[in-house]
Amino acid sequence: MPEHVVTPLAVDAERGWSLLPDGGPLFRHVLDAGGAGPDSWAEALGQYARMQRALTPYTDRMAGLGVPDGRTGRLPEVFDGLVEGNTTLAPDTRRALREQRPKLLDWCAELDAHGIPDSLDHCDLHDAQLLAPAAGRFTFFDWGDANVAHPFSSLLVPAQAVRERHGPEHVHRLREAYLEPWTDLGPSSRSCAGPRCSPPGSPRWAGRSRGSASSPARRPPGARRPAPTG
């Protein structure tokens, strides 16, 4: 996926270091300067979705390389491990989470029934995680919180960013641009992101979008919190 990411000049896998070239201006700075707007966000999300589609055959390989595995079929297992293994949970909190497990199973089964394949989820795709080296061209970086998961999870953070900067009337356009590369999978691609699944801009999202666009509003359980990004 070299056209979608910054290709390292050198990598030290043992120490987890990489040397990156200049990838162009930060998308946030372009937005601040008035050189981009909601339509640019839609272009970026369409490109991102096409990248995710291309990566769907490689989920096993990515998980095998150590990318955290939050695929739909594994979420109950992840949930159980965190609920039972988290020693910081108060007894009442642990009990309440256990009581919610049947609901989680139902949600996972419903999500899986739509047939949308898992892919790579950036998990924190706000405007300071994109570079804009040229008009209509974007690269995505800072993948430190990424996991293998249902791809539509990626919509939450960009939707919050667009809602806060440009207004809720632009969120539908963002959603449509993101979903377009998945439409060959049938109507389920849109119904999966419909009201039942709380799409960007829905009332359930509205209450969650009051925080910072760079906050980990939709982060897989156990994932680390990112450092501030400008």
Structure, briefly:
It is built from ten helices and six strands. The longest helix is centred in the first third of the chain and has 18 residues.
Spell out the key features of this protein:
single chain; 230 residues; mainly alpha; two-stranded antiparallel sheet; 10 helices; globular
Could you characterize the architecture of this molecule?
40% of the residues lie in helices and 9% in strands. The protein has ten helices and six strands, in the order ββααααααββββαααα. The protein has helices at 27-32, 38-55, 59-64, 75-85, 91-99, 101-113, 156-166, 171-179, 188-191, 203-206, and strands at 10-12, 17-19, 119-121, 130-134, 137-140, 147-149. The strands form three sheets. It has a two-stranded antiparallel ribbon. It has a two-stranded antiparallel sheet with strand order 3-6. α2 (38-55) runs parallel beside α8 (171-179). The longest helix is centred in the first third of the chain and has 18 residues, at 38-55.
Helices, by number, come to: 10
Strand proportion, as a percent range, falls in 5-15%
| Spatial sequence of strands, sheet with the most strands | 1-2
Total DSSP E strands: 6
Task: Give a quick account of the main beta sheet: strands, pairing sense, barrel closure.
Answer: 2 strands, antiparallel
The shape, in one word, is: globular
What's the rounded overall pLDDT mean? 84
Distance between the termini: 26 Å
Order of helices and strands: EEHHHHHHEEEEHHHH
Rg, alpha carbons: 18 Å
Q: How helix-rich are the residues, as a percent range? A: 25-40%
Please mark out the parts with pLDDT under 50 across 5 or more consecutive residues, or reply none: 195-230
